[in-house]
Structure formats: C-alpha cells, structure tokens
Design brief:
The protein is mainly alpha-helical and 211 residues long. The protein has one domain. It has a 3-stranded mixed beta sheet, with helices on one face. The longest helix has 32 residues. The radius of gyration is 17 Å and the shape is globular.
Length: 211
C-alpha cells in the first residue's frame, strides 16, 4: 500500500520546483487499487512511474517481498543508479498476481531539498533511477517487448511532466537552473549505471557465498 505524500513547506525556489515536479505525490485524493486485470487509461501501464505511489510512503507484505527476492540491489539510494527500487518492486508485485492499494488517508509529510544544489543532485538521481529501472525490464526476455512498445509513450510522458511543472511554477517562479537538463542527463546515464550496479551486486553475492 502507498499513500499521499504532502509537501511540508515551500519557502524557496528549490522546494517550489520539487513540489511542482512531483505533483502526483500530493494531488491524488481518491483511493485506488491496481492489479494486472485493471487497465487504467495509461499507455505505460503497468510500467507507469508514479501511478502507484512512491517509496516515500510505502507499506509492504514482507513475506511477499521476500518471496520475490527483496529489493533489487542494483537499484536505489546507495547504489550507482540512485533510485528506481520502488518502481521495480511495484511491477514485480503486480506481475506476481498481487495488487497495490493507494490510500490517501495514509499521509506523510515530505521535506523537499531546501537548496538548489541538493535539488539538482536529486533530479539527476531521479533520471538515473528511472532509466535504470526501465533498463532492467528492457533487458528481461519476458518483458522486453512490453517495455520497448511503451517507450514512445514514456518519452511523451516526460515532456508532459516538463510542461506541467512549468505551468505549475508560473512566470514568477523560474525553474532552478539546470534542474531539468540534469534529469535528462540522468536518464541517459541510467542504463550504463544499471549494468555496472547489477554486475557489482552479482560480484558481491558471489563473494558472500564463497566466504
């Protein structure tokens, strides 16, 4: 289950930008349930980043996640890819025949990056995490065709998010310099970072087994 992630404060341009960029976190107020049988009006489904919620507000069935192999050690904070572990888990839960519930009454408050340097690092990480997660499914034999078929829709989604963010900020609040460019740079770097992180995770598991 995921829930609503509300913005704790907007006191500067960095916080305003993130609030506009991650609008889906705090603007969805109706409960929803997702599974593979449901077909929302979303061409990316079930590979839709953001539609199921976010790891910033997440409760899981521990036994199920363990049975699925846990979080991917090549994704997420602390890895070269810097993110995408929650997106990956959502897809694996659905593909296992289970469901994800979005419940907005399960509320957390999120303190966004308070300075523009930290924001730019975060946006780069959002880019790397997203494309790293997508690369995992593009490399998978059973998911490759599904993912690649949705790629044009994904590119259009990125452009819609950019335009929506700009509209939300308005002319009086310019976006922090380089924020969107760094996110695009991260998108380009993510696939290579995923391959490196996956290789490193495999070596780590092999070393642990040998010892």
């Amino acid at each position: 289950m995921t829930g609503l992630v509300a913005t704790a404060s907007i006191s500067n341009r960095a916080e305003a930008y993130f609030d506009a960029r991650a609008a889906s976190w705090s603007t969805r107020t109706a409960p929803e349930t997702f599974d593979l049988a449901s077909r929302p009006d979303d061409l990316l489904y079930p590979y839709s980043p953001g539609i199921f919620g976010t790891g910033a507000n997440l409760v899981v069935d521990r036994d199920l996640v363990s049975a699925l192999g846990g979080f991917d050690e090549a994704l997420g904070a602390g890895t070269a890819t810097r993110g995408g572990e929650d997106l990956d888990l959502f897809v694996r839960v659905l593909r296992a025949g289970r469901a994800i519930a979005y419940e907005p009454s399960a509320l957390v408050w999120h303190h966004h990056r308070a300075d523009e340097r930290a924001l730019r690092r975060q946006m780069y990480a959002y880019g790397t995490g997203l494309s790293a997660y997508a690369s995992k499914y593009a490399l998978g034999r059973s998911t490759r065709t599904e993912l690649l078929r949705r790629l044009p829709s994904g590119v259009r989604r990125i452009d819609r998010i950019r335009r929506r963010t700009s509209r939300s900020l308005g002319p009086r609040t310019p976006a922090p310099r380089g924020a969107f460019i760094l996110e695009l740079t991260g998108l380009l770097a993510g696939p290579l970072l995923y391959l490196r992180a996956r290789s490193g995770a495999r070596r780590s598991r092999t070393t642990s087994t040998e010892t």
